[in-house]
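Q: What structure does this chain adopt?
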Amino acid sequence: MTERTLIVNADDFGRSPGVNRGVVRAHEEGIVNSASLMVRWPAAAEAAAYARRGRLSVGLHLDLGEWQYRAGEWRERYTVVDTGDAEAVGAEVARQLDLFERLVGRGPSHLDSHQDVHRKEPAKGALAAAGARLGVPVRGAVPDIAYSGAFYGQNSRGAQFPEAITVAGLVETIEALPPGTTELACHPAADVDHETTYAQERLQELETLCDPRVRAALEREGVALLSFAELARADG
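A:
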């Protein structure tokens, strides 16, 4: 069988204490081995403190805003900077990277963004340039690391899709992994203690990620868990 490796990355680390507790539990009791830190949020310092003393691989979750699907279109819930302003976006990327390094005490192991805003310019170019400078992968932009958003309890218009985050759904995703390395995003939380369009789904994700049947499926399929930091050491 061709070797398959899986990076299970928890987004939104630092957004709230409940998210932090969920990420930590999913790391210590489940299959999460990497996380992406939202440096702007009040619980970021708590998350960074855990990252400094533990083995969790932590990258930057660039936060430029959040959008919600309502009345047939995506509408802003909050905005950090104008996502169409290249100069403002570049400055915000630099600011959040600097804050990350001050909080965590080291550079990020990888880069990605909240609601994948870096899929479009100018954030795409700004994050790619940062990744090249730091020598770390950017989500969806590295040929050797496939990205999967299959473990997500909503569809593309924000409607509930709970089947995707059940144990059976995650096992099916694991069984279908292609050869090579895949990053699988997740959003666990132990408590919904912040405003979010993705609420009860976070609690369900946590239980699924910690379910022993999931780890058994990885072993049965011969899929190895690997963090971004471990991947970098292996390549180096």
